[in-house]
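Structure ticket #2291
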Amino acid sequence: MNAHLRKGTMALAAMAAVAGAAAATTPAAAADDPQFLAPSDLPPHPRSEWFAGPVTAGQPDPLPMCVGDALPSTSMHRVFRTDYDTGALQVTVVERSVERAKDFAALLRRHMSDCPHELVTQDPDVTATERFYGPLAVGDGADVYGINTTTTWGATDINLFSIGRDGNIVTVVKWGEMGDFTNAPLDAFKATTVTAVNKLS
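Resolution: structure written out below.
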């Protein structure tokens, strides 16, 4: 599906800035918190290491495209960057019950599916194409999505998302860089998602 998408959703450079800011934030992780991805768990970059900020309490700033408005203040997040334009983000929410986690995961999936439609009037210069890559059999389930954004002046970005749940914990993983669907490391991202969900328990 094609839809217009705001320019701010493609600001991968801002993710690197968040990583630097996060270093000054008190880490939120405690012994009983779910484990987050490590840099080595992310899809390998051909020319750079991955670098990780601390696990930090609260919503990421800026909010990630598509799912950002659904993230509660009880979120925990970790920002990842490379020496190039490629960046990643993991956001995890611990709900009070399994039922609440099911409802929250369903809300995130609706936001992903509705994202291009909701943003159709935001910017006439930006177009988005969304693909649903299906479910993964890990934990209590995970779904993988891709969104390619292009502009009238020729810029193009590809973002992969996954939404996974294990019991009362939900995690979102986002990976993005300049490019299109042909540049997306889909198999490696699926492996990253499996690792992320397995680390929740």
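Closing remark: Residues 4-26 have pLDDT under 50 and may be disordered.
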